[in-house]
Design goal:
Elements lengths: L1 H30 L21 H14 L9 E6 L5 E5 L12 H13 L8 E3 L2 H4 L13 E3 H11 L2 H12 L2 H14 L22 H14 L4 H4 L3 E4 L4 E4 L4 H4 L3 E9 L3 E10 L2 E10 L2 H18 E7 L4 E6 L7 E6 L3 E6 L6 E7 L12 E9 L2 E10 L8 H17 L1
Antiparallel strand pairs: 1-2, 1-9, 3-4, 5-6, 7-8, 8-9, 10-13, 11-12, 12-16, 14-15, 15-16
Helix pairs in contact: 3-6, 3-8, 5-6, 6-7
């Protein structure tokens, strides 16, 4: 009988061991899928959330007092419209916080500006220095002297937030990381990022390395609006480098899970917590949502989505007129050719609350009795758009081409050119 009890105990212990071992293998395989980044947390429900009615009431009261009507838990947040830069929602938007790898938005901006100016090209080979190879945090483990193209470096920076690639690019562009960081701070001032001081180009925690949700939205807008080629990288979900040996999976889970997501950059450290600059476009409306110091990775993604949903639900971007569109053909008194197309000088669009487009009024003012000479691009009027009497946008109406004044010589030349053209036909 005693022997049977011992056998039962042994069998029970073996069963417990087998169950524990099986579960450890399953979870280890899930967690150990190597994606070359320390920021590739899966989207999960926050299991630390507690159902406490008194706590919820206090949170709601504080949110209403601060104007935080969406009850965001993050330390700072903002939602802007990309084209106009208009702020649609903000919460502690100027709070100076640690950006972590969202810092790289500025690094990427400087790389894209160097590309667009012709300073560098996507096919340039960039070598990894000892300094770049020694970076910690997210990386693709570049070896000293290893070369990647600028295109490959950008892919690694945008998709998996590679610190080693970021430093290699900084040194390639400016000779040293220090010189590159000086350029980052100079560019930040030019953009009006008054809450920002960069100490490095990658975002690893460093005393004094601070920015705000508002400032992140400024540099994100500059990057997305003026360098749309970056979307070729920020919208990648999965890719590879080194002939398929290095797998890349985007640290920004919204790229896979949110309709219209276009980017942009994640960031997290134990001190900064969880940050995100998220961009998305739907039906011509482009939004940028910034989350800083979210308590968990799931909350940063859910609150960014909450901001984007709020924007898409309540606003629309209305294209009112396109640059170069012909308004009408106008008669020109005493002009050779006598007629000219009047066109709109610039695009005009406006951010509107949904439903407001029904109230748009168009007012066109054009000079009467246009007389030659008329120069190409000469202003001959303007179009103004209003809602409820308030001006929301305008542009000039200009001449599409030059119309010379009639003279004996100009008429002779005009007749000669037309007859010559007819004879050639």
């Amino acid at each position: 009988m005693c022997m049977n009890k011992k056998i039962i105990k042994i069998l029970a212990l073996l069963l417990i061991f087998l169950i524990t071992f099986t579960f450890s293998i399953v979870f280890a395989r899930e967690e150990a899928l190597y994606v070359w980044s320390s920021e590739t947390e899966p989207l999960t429900i926050d299991t630390n959330a507690k159902d406490n009615s008194n706590s919820n009431k206090n949170t709601e009261q504080n949110s209403n007092e601060n104007g935080n009507t969406l009850n965001l838990e993050s330390g700072g947040a903002i939602l802007i419209e990309q084209e106009t830069g208009k702020i649609l929602y903000d919460h502690n938007a100027h709070e100076k916080l640690r950006p972590a790898s969202v810092t790289k938005v500025m690094s990427i901006l400087l790389i894209m500006e160097a590309l667009d100016s012709g300073q560098i090209s996507l096919t340039d080979k960039v070598a990894c220095t000892e300094n770049a190879a020694g970076m910690g945090g997210s990386q693709i483990w570049l070896e000293i002297g290893e070369e990647l193209t600028v295109d490959e470096m950008l892919k690694a920076i945008c998709v998996v937030s590679a610190n080693d690639c970021t430093v290699a690019m900084a040194e390639y562009l400016c000779g040293s990381e220090e010189a590159f960081v000086n350029k980052m701070n100079q560019r930040a001032k030019e953009l009006g990022m008054n809450d920002t001081t960069f100490k490095n180009c990658h975002g690893i925690d460093e005393d004094g390395h601070l920015t705000s949700a508002y400032d992140i939205s400024l540099m994100s807008r500059e990057l997305l609006k003026n360098h749309p080629k970056i979307l070729d990288y920020t919208t990648i979900w999965m890719d590879t480098l080194r002939n398929g040996e290095s797998e890349l999976v985007n640290t920004n889970k919204l790229i896979r899970n949110y309709k219209g997501a276009t980017g942009l950059k994640t960031g997290s450290t134990s001190v900064a917590l969880y940050n995100l600059s998220a961009s998305a476009t739907r039906d011509g409306l482009s939004l940028i949502a910034v989350i800083m110091k979210a308590p968990t990775t799931a909350i940063r993604f859910s609150e960014a989505q909450k901001l984007l949903d709020y924007g898409f639900s309540n606003y629309q971007y209305k294209d009112l007129v396109s640059k170069g569109t012909v308004l009408k053909e106008a008669e020109i008194t005493k002009g050779v050719g006598e007629k000219v197309n009047l066109i709109f000088e610039n695009d005009v669009g406006f951010l509107l609350k949904k439903g407001e487009d029904k109230n748009i009024e168009q007012v066109i003012n054009v000079e009467e009795n246009l007389t030659a000479p008329i120069l190409e691009g000469q202003k001959v009027g303007e179009v103004i758009y209003k809602i409820n009497g308030e001006e929301i946008g305008k542009t000039n109406i200009i001449a599409e081409k030059t119309i010379e004044k009639k003279t004996f010589f100009s008429i002779s030349a005009f007749v000669y050119e037309n007859w010559f053209s007819m004879l050639r036909i």
